[in-house]
């Protein structure tokens, strides 16, 4: 079996379906199957921008704050100043920058341009990972999301270098797996779970379900 598929199977068996993307703070496996309304899509895009360089826990605080103030929608956010928005999303860190990014993203949506990878990449402050999160989780387009956890796990397993380029690692997934958004949704979510439970900065290899597939484990376990 293809090694990338084998790793997915092991992780799915170990952790089960993750129910990404959480909407209203709730993880629900139906989210990846159902057609999302515009409000849900916008919440995902917002989360994808706010989660840059911070944990999801901090993003949830910001999203709840926006919700509490009846501002978790594009019309309200359009009317807020950058300073007002920055105040509401303070918990996400880099909040002044992120408020500006959200405003630029709204301008992009208002422009009516097609939501394509190239067009999204032209929005100030939105890079590969954010763009692919938006395309995969909000728009169900099969773009594999690569993050620091993906690089850490697959470099340790021995399938890429530690400093692998984003597009190069994404290509590994696109070239070796069926390009299916539900599958890519689950795979990325499982990798995040795995990085949190076992493949941390200092890995907990004993008990790791991937140890038989892992170069790092084989080289360091004697
Ligand atoms: S065996 Fe260790 S290094 Fe390899 S994937 Fe598991 S936790 Fe990470």
Describe this structure in words.
The chain is mostly helical and 222 residues long. The chain folds into two domains: 1-20 and 144-222, Endonuclease Iii, domain 2 (Orthogonal Bundle), CATH 1.10.1670; 37-139, Hypothetical protein, domain 2 (Endonuclease III, domain 1, Orthogonal Bundle), CATH 1.10.340. The protein contains twelve helices and no strands. It has helices spanning 3-15, 38-50, 56-68, 74-79, 82-88, 95-111, 117-121, 128-138, 148-157, 166-176, 181-197, 215-220. The longest helix has 17 residues, at 95-111. The relative contact order is 0.14. Iron/sulfur cluster binds at residues 153, 156-157, 198-199, 203-205, 208, 210-211, 214, 216-217.
Comma- or semicolon-separated keywords:
58% helix, 222 residues, binds iron/sulfur cluster, globular, mainly alpha, 12 helices, Endonuclease Iii, domain 2, Endonuclease III, domain 1, 2 domains, single chain
Write the layout of secondary structure elements.
Layout: H1 3-15, H2 38-50, H3 56-68, H4 74-79, H5 82-88, H6 95-111, H7 117-121, H8 128-138, H9 148-157, H10 166-176, H11 181-197, H12 215-220
Helix pairs in contact: 1-11, 2-3, 2-8, 5-6, 9-11
Bound molecules: iron/sulfur cluster (SF4).
């Amino acid at each position: 079996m293809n090694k990338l598929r084998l790793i997915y199977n092991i992780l799915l068996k170990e952790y089960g379906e993750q129910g990404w993307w959480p909407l209203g703070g709730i993880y629900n496996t139906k989210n990846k199957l159902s057609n999302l309304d515009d409000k849900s899509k916008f919440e995902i895009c917002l989360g994808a921008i706010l989660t840059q360089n911070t944990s999801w826990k901090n993003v949830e605080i910001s999203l709840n704050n926006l919700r509490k103030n009846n501002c978790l929608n594009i019309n309200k956010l359009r009317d807020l100043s950058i300073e007002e928005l920055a105040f509401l999303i303070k918990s996400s860190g880099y909040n002044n920058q992120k408020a500006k990014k959200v405003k630029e993203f709204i301008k992009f949506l208002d422009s009516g341009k097609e939501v394509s990878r190239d067009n999204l990449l032209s929005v100030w402050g939105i890079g590969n990972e954010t763009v692919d999160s938006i395309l995969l989780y909000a728009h169900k387009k099969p773009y594999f999301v690569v993050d620091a956890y993906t690089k850490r796990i697959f470099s340790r397993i021995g399938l890429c270098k530690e400093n692998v380029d984003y597009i190069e690692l994404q290509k590994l997934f696109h070239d070796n797996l069926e390009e299916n958004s539900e599958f890519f949704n689950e795979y990325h979510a499982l990798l995040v779970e795995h990085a949190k439970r076992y493949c941390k900065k200092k890995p907990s290899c004993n008990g790791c379900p991937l140890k038989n597939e892992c170069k790092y484990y084989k080289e360091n376990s004697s």
